[in-house]
Structures are given as structure tokens and as C-alpha cells.
Design a protein that fits this description.
Helix content is 11%, strand content 17%. By secondary structure, it is of the alpha+beta class. The protein starts with 29 loop residues before the first strand and ends with a strand. Bound molecules: iron/sulfur cluster (2 copies). The site of one iron/sulfur cluster has 13 residues, from helix 2.
Length: 92
């Protein structure tokens, strides 16, 4: 059985954009904070984020686009190693 290298896989995902009410990140009450040392780069947060607000960086780590993250907490719920903590806005 052969596998396909990820460099040949194209992802068709829409990017978040500002709507009539502006950027959706202003709705957020809690923000996800990723612990890069704990993260195992599994991609589940990226896969499950309903806003596509998780990005892969060049060094293959994940980061949150706070302009569009609504703070739903799904990324924190699906992270298998507890690397995403939801923190109340204004605390950090
Ligand atoms: S809190 Fe929700 S919207 Fe924000 S990055 Fe996580 S899954 Fe996406
Ligand atoms: S789900 Fe958790 S371990 Fe997986 S990439 Fe996201 S932060 Fe890292």
C-alpha cells in the first residue's frame, strides 16, 4: 500500500475574512494559548477549528490568528496532550 507525501496534498480551505461587523476575533471572551513545548504537531486543532483560525508556520508549529479566532475552545477540547489553554481575555 502506498502513501501520499503531504507535500503533494492540496488543502482547499477558505480563509476567514472581515464581515459587515468587522473581524470576528472581537467577539472572543477567552483566547486559546498554545504551549509550543507540549504541542506534538498533530494538527487536530487546525483540522477542527471551525473558523480556520489556526495556521501552520514555516517551522511546522501551529499558531492562532487572533483576528478571527472566536474563542469557541474546540481546539483546546480536541488537543490530545492538553497543549491549548483557554485564558480569559485581558489576563495575558
Ligand atoms: S478557540 Fe475556536 S475559533 Fe479559536 S482557534 Fe480554537 S477552535 Fe478556532
Ligand atoms: S491539537 Fe494540540 S498537539 Fe495537536 S497541533 Fe494542536 S496544539 Fe499541537
Amino acid at each position: 500500500m502506498s502513501s501520499v507525501s503531504s507535500k503533494y496534498v492540496k488543502y482547499i480551505l477558505s480563509r476567514p475574512m472581515a464581515g459587515a461587523g468587522g473581524k470576528t476575533g472581537t467577539w472572543r471572551v477567552h483566547r486559546p494559548v498554545i504551549n509550543a513545548e507540549r504541542c506534538i504537531k498533530c494538527g487536530l486543532c487546525w483540522l477542527y477549528c471551525p473558523e480556520n483560525a489556526i495556521d501552520w508556520l514555516e517551522n511546522k508549529t501551529v499558531t492562532v490568528d487572533y483576528d478571527y479566532c472566536k474563542g469557541c475552545g474546540i481546539c483546546s477540547d480536541v488537543c490530545p496532550v492538553g497543549a491549548v489553554t483557554m485564558v480569559k481575555e485581558g489576563v495575558i
